[in-house]
Every structure is written in C-alpha cells, then in structure tokens.
Amino acid sequence: MIFKLNVENLRHLNLKRPKLLISTKWNYFINWTQTENGCIFHDSFNGDIRAVENDLRQIDGLRDFVINPRLSVCDNNDLNVLARSSSAEFYIDHRKSMIRVSPWRYTLTELHLGSYIRNDGIEYIGHLHSLKVFSWGLSLYTFDEEFAHIKNLYNLEELRVWFGGQDCNVTPEGLITLFTLPQNEPEKSFPYKLKHLVISNYLEGTVDLFRVIDQNCPNLRTLGLPFNDYLPFNDGVMPFIVSNFKRLFFLDLSNFGDHYKDEVWDNLDDRNLPDLRLLILHGNKVNVENLRRLNLKRPKLLISTKWNYFINWTQTENGCIFHDSFNGDIRAVENDLRQIDGLRDFVINPRLSVCDNNDLNVLARSSSAEFYIDHRKRSYSSDHSV
After folding, report:
1. What is the pLDDT of residues 103-125, one digit of tens each?
2. Domains of the chain (ranges plus CATH)?
3. Helix and strand counts by DSSP (H, E) for the chain
4. Rounded to two decimals, what is the model's pTM?
5. Distance (Å, rounded) from C-alpha 116 to C-alpha 127?
C-alpha cells in the first residue's frame, strides 16, 4: 500500500519461488490456481489469514508483522486500544470488561499501547496475567491507584512507559510500592521477572525509587531513563545507578538535561556496570575526552553520544586517533548487539525504516549482515567486540 507495485513481476517471482509468501495489500497474499492451460492468479485471498500468520511465526526470526489489521475480538465502533499477541492483533474497548471474558485473556503475551488510555481502562490490563511485554506510549493524568494494577502482571519481562511529565500524577512512593516484592514467594510477583525497564519523561525519580528497583529486579538487564530533563530530576540518581546497578547490559541516559553527571565516568572502576555493553547518552553535554578514556579502558563497550555515531578510533604507532564520525554500518552493529541476551529495542540510527511515513518509523532488522572496516580500526564483529 506504500509502493507502486508491478504485480506481474511479483507473480513471476512467486512462480519461481513458490514457498515465498508475497503480500501486496491487507488481507492478501499472491495466490493462484494451476490449470492445464497455465496459472490463474486471484485478486483476493480466500484462505485463513490468521492460520498463515501463525504458521509464519513458527519460523525463527519472524515476529511482529500483520497481514490482517482487523482481527477483532468484538464488533464495536468505539475501540481505541491496540493490543498485540503472538498470533494476531486485537482491538479492546477499554470501557467494558471484555478482557474478563475474552478467551485470549490467558494467552496474550504482548500489549503495545501507542497513546493515551483512560485511567479506568488500566484495571483491565491487570487481568492479562500472561503478558510478558507491556509498552505504554503515554501515561497521562494517571494516579498511583490506577498504575498499581500493573502489579498483577507477574509474568512481565519488559515494561516501557512514557509518563506525562508535568501531567503525571504517579508519585515516587507509588512506584516504590509497585516495585517492592513481597517477602513470601517473591518469584511469583511483579517485578521479579522484569528484564527490561524504560521510564521516560518521569520528573520525580528519586534515589530511593531506584534503590528499590535495583533490589527487587534481580533479572534487570536494560534500563532506559530518557527525556527526564524538564524539571529537577534528583541529582543523586545518575551516580547511584552507575555505582549500584551491577547487572545491566544496556543503559540509556539520553536527554538527562542539567542533571547529567559526566564526572561519574571518571571514577568508574571494574565494579561499576561491569557487564555494560551499550551506553546511550544522546542529547547531553558530554565530556568526550572522559568517555574516550573510558572506552579505551573498556573496548567492548559501545558508547553512542549522538545519532548515527559510536565512539571509535584508529590505533597507530603514536597512539589512538579518535574519529568525529562513524563510517561503519550502523545497522550491522545494531544486529550484532541484539544477539546479546538482554539488549533489545534500541535505536542508534533513527532513519533505518522500511517506509518514509510520519506515522510509522519501523526499524528494519536483518538477521545477518556483513560488516567490514579497515582491520586497523576497531572491529565491531559479533565475536570480537560485544
């Protein structure tokens, strides 16, 4: 639907590669009937789209695509929350209790809310006990008591929330309660299984909050705190994270504003963030010299200080020559990083998309990419640098 396609060319390709499924529009794959006189192509697809999607998702590496955008669990015009599962997309009326009786309530594993949801809808999300991934595009005017329903998502491994900044009513005390495990059987409660956490545009983070997160999330590998620069963000948070979060592979402190503490990298020793493999600091006033010294001490660590860039250098007889640009293949580096368990859904190049559209900015991933740079320069191959 985005491109002007030559259907005849695609049909010829499909005849040469009959195992290849080609979709040129919603609810459709190129398909044909073999007759004595040749192939008769059809303009519609009368098969079971959902069954085909399910079969495709059994292939390792295929995920999060949609052929049918209207696999709805209800026939209602007032639908505004999009939920994804491993098998289909569903539309939920957040004002009604459909989740309580829906058969997929027990099987839905991913829920992505692209924008605002009314507070009385959060309760129903708490009934989706099989959720492993929950991303919320905008938590606006939400209070502690509504946000607390996330506590019921005891299987959650990934939580991403963009808070409403000055329009967010979730308090640090409310989040502390949310992230505190019970003494009895903590492994059966949120946030014990949490591996990936992103808290964006939250202006009331405190050291006490992040102390609780560190103590109660034993499996946490990814921490993102971007866009927390508009109101005073507790000055001690960044030094605390660097000194105490020992298990992180990925840390995003982009757009931390005046509360970015560049001096923490001067005092970093082997006990601080020992497993860190990716550090993103976009939008901050960084001391590049400090970060370069850190990178020389930890050559396996990738540091990105701006879009389309990693700190990189050439080793010479007279020492290291650092480069102000990155001439390697950003996509290949991203692919290599995603092979590390614990690294997920980050973007260094914001324009690696499959379409140029204001509403869609889909990152195109490749399962394998060849990446060559001069052997004298720092190598980013998966078996060497990360």
Report:
1. 677 888 888 887 667 777 788 88
2. 1-47 (no CATH), 65-337 (3.80.10.10)
3. 10, 14
4. 0.68
5. 19
